[in-house]
């Protein structure tokens, strides 16, 4: 087995069904399997994955991990994977026919972490090719990344103490980089990431921002380097801004503009970014004071 695709999911049966269907359409792909780790779903995820496995032209394995923990779920998948290379992706993606072949081609030298372009789209109908806006300098993003299994095992996999949203993949990237792994970005290994506006509500994103700030504290405690502090926003100017320049009234204003459908789309987008950045910065400041 050359490649093992590991997908963690929770209560997203319709998404995982579409993701698996797109893997069935691969062309020129190496031998591969998909391992779906159900992270405590209460919907029809189990039956959907099992039905997909019965009709699939590639092996699909279903695992159940009751504890909601992204790192733990992915570690479960890696532990049973038979592939030389582990490819992580999210459940809300669709991959083009040459996706797996592109990832394999990018591993033309040892010691590589291959990140593919991520094209965010609002629905399943939009399928644009990647553009410069889709470039990422991240060392590791689990929405679309492939890594030799031996390298993951060598550094101990994901840190399962990151039990909320955020930073567990970046933290793994730090350890992989320190072990001598090198990053490569592949435009050919792109995928479409479905981000439905109806589900990406301000409340949902604000909760994620709070969780991410709390996990940033954990990340900093584990890796208190200037690089990590800069990446998480835990530098003096940002913390002073959070403490003195982000009152409730300002965040409420940003939230109001971001939610106003009469406002200009660009203005709404800016307000949304400022609101979420403010929520994150204030929670990070509080977390670091504890």
Please describe what this structure looks like.
This protein is α/β, with parallel strands linked by helices and 290 residues long. The termini are far apart. It has helices at 13-23, 45-55, 70-80, 99-106, 149-155, 168-178, 202-222, 226-232, 236-244, 248-259, 265-289, and strands at residues 3-9, 32-38, 60-64, 85-89, 93-94, 112-121, 144-148, 182-194. It folds into two domains: 3-194, Spore Coat Polysaccharide Biosynthesis Protein SpsA, Chain A (Alpha-Beta Complex); 202-289, no CATH class. The protein is globular, with a radius of gyration of 19 Å. It contains eleven helices and eight strands. The mean pLDDT is 97.
What is the fold's blueprint, element by element?
Blueprint: E1 3-9, H1 13-23, E2 32-38, H2 45-55, E3 60-64, H3 70-80, E4 85-89, E5 93-94, H4 99-106, E6 112-121, E7 144-148, H5 149-155, H6 168-178, E8 182-194, H7 202-222, H8 226-232, H9 236-244, H10 248-259, H11 265-289
Parallel strand pairs: 1-2, 1-4, 2-3, 6-8
Antiparallel strand pairs: 4-7, 5-8, 6-7
Helix pairs in contact: 1-2, 7-11, 9-11, 10-11
**Structural class by sheet pairing and helices:** alpha/beta
Which CATH first-tier class of the largest domain would you pick?
Answer: Alpha Beta
Total discrete domains: 2
* Span of the ends, CA to CA: 47 Å
Low-confidence regions:
none
Spatial arrangement of strands, main beta sheet: 3-2-1-4-7-6-8-5
Secondary-structure element series: EHEHEHEEHEEHHEHHHHH
Q: Measured on Cα atoms, how large is the radius of gyration?
A: 19 Å
Domain Galactosyltransferase C-terminal: 135-182
Keywords: Transferase
Pfam family, one: Glycos_transf_2
Domain Glycosyltransferase 2-like: 4-128
